[in-house]
Amino acid sequence: MHRHYRSHYRVIPESPRWLAMRKRYKESEEILTQMALRNNRSIPEFRNMRNFVEEEDRKRGMSKKFTYFDLFRTPKMTMYTLILMYAWFVCSAVFYGLSLNIKNLAGDRYINNMIGGLVDIPAVLLVIYTANAPWCGRKRTLFSGMLLAGITLIGVLFLKLAEKSLTEVAFGQATVALAMTGKFGIAVSWSASYLIAAEIFPTLMRSIGSGACSIAARIGGIVAPQFVFLHEIWSPFPFIVFGSIAIISALTVIVLPETRGKPMPDAIPEWSWTSCKDSKDSKHSELPMSDIHNNKVDIDVLDDNHLEQSSTEILLKCDQGQTKEFFAV
After folding, report:
1. Rounded CA gap, 121 and 40, in Å?
2. Does the chain have fewer CB atoms within 10 Å around its N or its C terminus?
3. Each residue of 56-76: pLDDT tens digit?
4. Distance between CA atoms of 275 and 270, rounded to whole angstroms?
5. What is the pLDDT of residue 316?
6. How many angstroms separate the CA atoms of 17 and 8, rounded?
C-alpha cells in the first residue's frame, strides 16, 4: 500500500495554484508550462500571476496561519461550512449505520454483507459520470443521492405498517432491497460530497475545510452504532432515523452552489457579518481568478493591476478537465 501511494506521489504533480499562493513561483511555472505544451496551448504570462499573489499578500498578509475559525468569516461561508459538515456527518452515520444494521436484516447475513459491499461499486461509477455531466453536476448528484437514501429508508416504516398483508419472506426481501438501495444512495452522496467540499473552500483553507468536514464524519461514525441499538426498541427505528437525517441533509444541500466547471476560489474573504454578500475587497480579489476566465473584466475595478491576460488560464482549465493528457503519462 505504501509503495502504491509513493508511485502516485512521483507521477502526479503538485497543484500549481497552491504553489503560486505559497510564492513558489518557479515550480508553479514549470508545471503550468508542461500542461500548456502537452495540451498544445500557448504558455501564459506568469507576471500576472505574481502580481495577483503579491497583491493578495499586501492586503491580507499570507504569512498568517489560518484556523478553523476562519471558516466562519462571513455568513455565506459559515452556511456552506455547516451544510457540508452536516452532510458528511449524515453520510458517515447512515453508511456505517446501515453496514452495522445488516445483522438485523432477514436472510443470510454474509450474503447481505456481500451485497452491501457490491452496491458501492456502481455508486462510485455513477458519480464519476453524473458529477461531470452538464445536466447534473456535483450539487444535483449529492442532492439526488441523499434524497434517494432518505426516501427508501423511510419506506421501511411503511413496509412495516403493511407487514400483515405480506408474507414473511416477501417482507424480509423487500426490507433488504430498501436497505441496500438506501446504502447505494448514501454511497453516491458521500463520493459527491468529497468533490463539492474540495471545490467550495478557498485554496489556502481547503485542507482546513475538508478537515472540519472529516471531523463531522468521524462524529457520525461514532454515533452510528448507537442508532443501530434502536432496533431493540422497534425494528424500523434505525431506518427512520437514517432516512430522516438524510432527507434533512438533502434539503439543506439545495442552498450550495454548483461547482462543476467553475473556477476554484483562491482569495480569502474579509471578516464581515454585516451582510450575506462578500465584501468589496473579496470581490476585487476574485476577479483575476474568475471574471478574467469568463472574459468579463471591468478595468475600472482592477485599478492598478490592469491585467491583460490571466496567467491562471491554464490552471483554471485544469479544473474543467482539459489537461487529462498530462495526467495520463
Report:
1. 35
2. N
3. 767 665 456 778 888 998 899
4. 12
5. 43
6. 19
